[in-house]
Design goal:
Elements: E1 2-6, H1 13-26, E2 31-35, H2 41-51, H3 60-84, E3 88-92, H4 95-105, H5 110-121, E4 128-133, H6 136-146, H7 150-154, H8 158-174, E5 179-183, H9 188-203
Parallel strand pairs: 1-3, 1-4, 2-3, 4-5
The structure holds adenosine-5'-triphosphate (ATP) and magnesium ion.
The site of adenosine-5'-triphosphate has 15 residues, from helix 1, helix 6 and helix 9.
């Protein structure tokens, strides 16, 4: 089964993806945890290009193409082979992030983005997507409370994050079958319990 975690920066995706992975490991369920962009040698190199601070001139389209190339390699090299072997594949961000950030946030044409998402992944759609939902205001608060990551979030405006956040909600509404929206302001434990309950049901464990 293919499970993805989505949400704006600092919403709590990585925290929950890791907790779910540890839970599945404790239950002896074969599983792997991946993060985007990354997860293969090629994808990690692409990640460096995308995240490098000196590349301020990168256009939204270039950025989107790089994310898609990284994702394409990850799908072929890691995700599909593991799904074939019966693993639960947990991915920290996937194509919904491109739709939310590059289209809803960055202004790229929605239809074109959805088409490229489809091409890059061979239309491999997650069985389950958790949207950890917090407002950009709360995310900024988290960023300033913890210090280190303030720069990254402040380099983009609150207006941009509002568009991304609303974009995620719209994507969830359009894909109700696979999306579960969780209030990211609940405690880590509360969110974890909700996720475990849903995954248990899906996996019959
Ligand atoms: N439910 C929660 N309540 C309060 N703080 C949380 C919660 N979940 C995570 N955090 C804290 O918020 C910060 C961001 O969490 P995390 O790294 O999991 O988010 P993320 O969505 O993966 O962020 P990024 O997009 O930057 O990778 C961390 O400091 C984490 O400890
Ligand atoms: Mg993270």
């Amino acid at each position: 089964m293919f499970i993805t975690f989505e949400g704006i920066d600092l919403s709590g995706k990585s925290t929950q993806a890791k907790l779910l992975y540890e839970y599945l490991q404790s239950k002896k369920v074969k599983s792997i945890l991946l993060r985007e962009p990354g997860g293969t040698a090629i994808s990690e190199k692409i990640r460096e290009i995308i995240l490098a601070r000196e590349h301020l001139e990168m256009t939204p389209l270039t950025e989107f193409m790089l994310f898609s190339a990284s994702r394409s390699q990850l799908v072929s090299e890691v995700i599909k082979p593991h799904l074939k072997k019966g693993f639960v594949v947990i991915c920290d961000r996937y194509f919904d992030s491109s739709t939310a950030y590059q289209s809803y946030g960055g202004g790229l044409d929605l239809k074109q983005v959805l088409k490229v998402n489809e091409i890059a992944t061979g239309n491999l759609v997650p069985a389950l997507t958790f949207l950890v939902d917090i407002s950009p205001k709360d995310a900024f608060l988290r960023a300033s409370n913890r210090g280190g990551q303030t720069d990254r979030m402040e380099s983009k405006t609150l207006k941009f994050y509002n568009k991304v956040c609303n974009g995620f909600k719209e994507i969830a509404n359009k894909n109700k079958k696979r999306f579960v929206v969780i209030n990211g302001l609940l405690t880590v434990k509360q969110i974890q319990n909700r996720i475990t309950e849903i995954v248990n049901k899906k996996l019959n464990i």
